Amino acid sequence: ATRLRKIIDARNGVLEKAEEDLGCTGVVMCLEKNSPDLGDLLHSLMYVGGTITTLPFAPNPAYILVGLDV
């Protein structure tokens, strides 16, 4: 599998665990801005309803926070 495919599979696993095992209603993923796959990963997260957020977290300029409802 490609690197991006592995990242997408990991994303799906996190969302599934959050919803089914932990009973979460949302997840915030912290993504490094200097990641070589950031553009593709952001695109895939936006495709499934992700939104870039900062609240209620203190922003760190090295990261992008993406919130998702599960």
Question: What's the short version?
Answer:
With 70 residues, the chain is of the alpha+beta class. The chain has helices at 3-21, 38-47; strands at residues 26-32, 51-53, 63-69. The chain is 41% helix and 24% strand.
Question: Strands, helices and their partners?
Answer:
Elements: H1 3-21, E1 26-32, H2 38-47, E2 51-53, E3 63-69
Antiparallel strand pairs: 1-3, 2-3
Helix pairs in contact: 1-2
Which quaternary structure do these chains form? Answer: single chain
Largest sheet, order of strands side by side?
Answer: 1-3-2
Can you count the beta strands? Answer: 3
End-to-end CA span: 26 Å
- Counting DSSP H or I runs of 4 or more residues, the number of helices is 2
Give the biggest beta sheet.
3 strands, antiparallel
Structural class, by secondary structure, is alpha+beta
**Helicity range:** 40-55%
Q: Give the averaged pLDDT, no decimals.
A: 88
Features:
globular, alpha+beta, about 70 residues, 3 strands, 2 helices, three-stranded antiparallel sheet
Characterization of the model:
This protein is of the alpha+beta class and 70 residues long. Helices cover 41% and strands 24% of the residues. The protein has a 3-stranded antiparallel beta sheet with strand order 1-3-2.
